TrEMBL record:
PROSITE patterns: ALDOLASE_KDPG_KHG_2
Single GO MF annotation: lyase activity
Organism of derivation: Aliiroseovarius sediminilitoris
Pathway: Carbohydrate acid metabolism
Keywords tagged on the record: Carbohydrate metabolism, Lyase
NCBIfam families: PRK09140.1
Protein name: 2-keto-3-deoxy-phosphogalactonate aldolase
Family to which the UniProt record says this protein belongs: Belongs to the KHG/KDPG aldolase family.
Binding partners and assembly: Homotrimer.
Classification via Pfam families: Aldolase (PF01081)
Amino acid sequence: MSREIIAILRGIQPDEAVAITDALIHAGITKIEVPLNSPNPFDSITRMIAHAGDRALIGAGTVLTVEAVDQLARLGAGMVVSPDANPDVISATKRHGMLSYPGVLTPTEAFAALRAGADGLKFFPAFKLGLDGFKALSAVLPQATRTYAVGGVGPADFVNWISAGITGFGLGSNIYQPGHTADEVAKAADQIVAAYDTATK
C-alpha cells in the first residue's frame, strides 16, 4: 500500500539517514523528503537513494532554485518539494522527470503551479488555511488535483482533512526532529501510519 504521507526530515544528518530511511519504509512510509536547509542535505539524499531508491520515493524539500533541481536530478532524486510556487523550479523539475510539489496557499498560486506542470499542491501552512479555507479553495481546482496538507496538521487531524478531500499529508516534527533515533522515528511512524489507515478506511 502506497500511503500519501511525505516524511519531512528537516535537520537530519547524513550518518543517520540510512537507518531512519529503513525505519520509515518498515513502518509503511515510502515518500521521504530531506529539506535543503538541513546539514549536508545532498549527502543524505545520495546515501538514501543508494540504499533505498528502489523502495522509496526520495527527494528534497525547501527547493528554491533551478540549480538545486539540476543537482537533485544528477543524484537520481524523484521528488522536488518547495515552500513556494516558482514556475522555473516547477518546469525544471518536470524537464528532469521528477515529481513536483510546490507550496501554495491561494487560488492564484495554486493555478499558477498547475499551469507550470505541478504534480500536486502542498498547502502550507495548512493550519492557517484551515479546513474551511481548503474546502472553499479546492472547490475551484480541477477534480483530479492532488493536494497535501503541510504545517500544523498531525495524525489527530487526518480524519477531518481527508473528509474535506485532501489527498495526503507532509509531516515533519510529528515524525522526526533533530536528535531523534531511528527507534524513535519508527515508533512515531507506526502511530502515524495507524492513524492514516484508520482515517482512510
